[in-house]
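Please check this protein record:
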Amino acid sequence: MKFNRAVAAVLVAASVFSNVSARRAPPATNTDLNATEPQFRELYKELVETNTSLSVGDCTLAAERMAARMRAAGFADSDLRVFSVPEHPKEGGLVATFHGSDTTKKAILLLAHIDVVEAKREDWTRDPFTFIEENGYFYARGVVDDKAMAAYFTDILINYKREGYVPKRTLKMALTCGEESSGAFNGAKWLSENHRDWIDAEFAINEGAGGALDANGNRVALNIQAGEKVYQDFTLETTNPGGHSSQPVPQNALYDMARAISAVAAHEFPAQLNDATREYFTRLAPTQTPEIAAAMRAIVANPNDAAADAILSRNKQWHSMLRTTCVGTMIEGGHAKNALPQRVRTNVNCRIFPGVSVDAVQAALASAINNDKVSISLSGPRSPATPTPSLGANILAPIEAIAARHFPGTPIIPVMTTGATDAIYTSAAGIPTYGFSAIFMDADLGGIHGLNERIRVKSIMDARKFQYELIKYYADH
C-alpha cells in the first residue's frame, strides 16, 4: 500500500476550511452494522491470521476462506471464482460477483490485495500473525495494508446478500495477491491481462488514500486518490576496453558514467497537472502562507509558471507530485583496483506522471545524457502507461455528501500518490481506479510495512460504515 506520506503534515491547518458538497446524502443504511460487527470481527481476524507473506504464506487459502464465508451467506458457487496458476499455487485470489438488476449499467469493482509484507516474530512486540486488540488498536501484520479493505469489502457484500439488497449495478470484488512483492505472481495484473471480463467495471475502488489524524487523534482531512505515478527502472551502461591503471587514457567508463549521472541529476521534467493534483492544490491553498497559496493558485492556472513551480518545489512531495522524476539509486563498476574500468552500470529509478509513456521518459533521458557511449535499457518488466482517471462529480460528490454526515467539517482532499499500487494494471486495462479506504490513520501510518502494524478500532469501524453507504450509493446510480 502506498500513501502520500506528507499529507498529514501539510494538512495540519486544513480544518480551517471545508469543501463538503451540499448535495443530499444517500439514504440511511438498511443493515444495523453495529449488530453485525461481531461477524465482521471474526472475518477480519481470520483473514489477518491467515499468513499471506510470500515466503511461507498462502493467499489462495485466504481467498478460499473468504469464499467460504460468502458461500455461507448465500452466494452461488458460480459467482465465486478462487483462481491461481500452476506455477504459483499459493498466490491465488478471489473474484466474487454480486449481480445487479440493470444489465445496461456497468459494474463497480472493489479491489484489495491480501498479500502482506514479511514480518519476523523476534522483531515484533506481539506475534505479527495473531490478531490482537489492545488500548483501542488492532495489531498484526496486514491489519491495515490491505486486509482491512479486503475484510470490509467481503463483509459488506455479505451484509448486502443477507438483507436481500438488489443493486442496479453489479458489484464485483477482486481479492488479489502479489502487490507487496516484486517478482511474485500479481493477481491484479493477471486478471487485467487474461480475464478482464471477470473484473470489467465502470470504475474501481482500491487502496491508496485514506484519512489523516493529528497527534491528538483529531481528523485533519479525508483523501481520495485519483491517479498514481508509474514505477520504472532503467539501466545505464558504459563499456571500455580498459587497461592498466598506470597508463590512464581520457576515455574511461567511470567518467562517461559520471557525466551521464550528472546529466540525469540536472534534468528536470516539465510540470504537469491532472484532476487530482489540480483539486489538491486548489483546496490546500487556503491553509498555506500567502506566498505558497499564491504559488498554488498560479500553478493551477498555468502549470508552466516557472516562478510558482520553483516555490512549490522546495517541498519534495509537491515537486514529485508535479512531474515525472528520475534518480540514480545504485551503481556498480570496475573489476580491479589497479585496472581501468571495463564496464559500469547505474540504476535510474523513475516515477512517471500518469499518462506519460515509458518510451517518452527513456527518450528524454537519452537526450539529456547525449552520449552514444552510454546505453539506456529497461530494467525489469515494462510498466504500463496508465491514464489519469477523471475526478468528476459522479465520484467525488457522493464521498463529500456521506462525509458531511459521518465526518462533519472534515475537508475532502484529492491526491495523486507518488508511489504505486495495483491500480496501474486495472487503469491500464481501461478501468478507472480510485484509491479510497475511508480509514483515518495516525501520522506515522500505523507502522505499515514496518514493526507492530496497527490501526485504531474506531477507524476501521467508521470506514466499514462509510463504505457500506458509499458502495450502495454508487451501485444504485
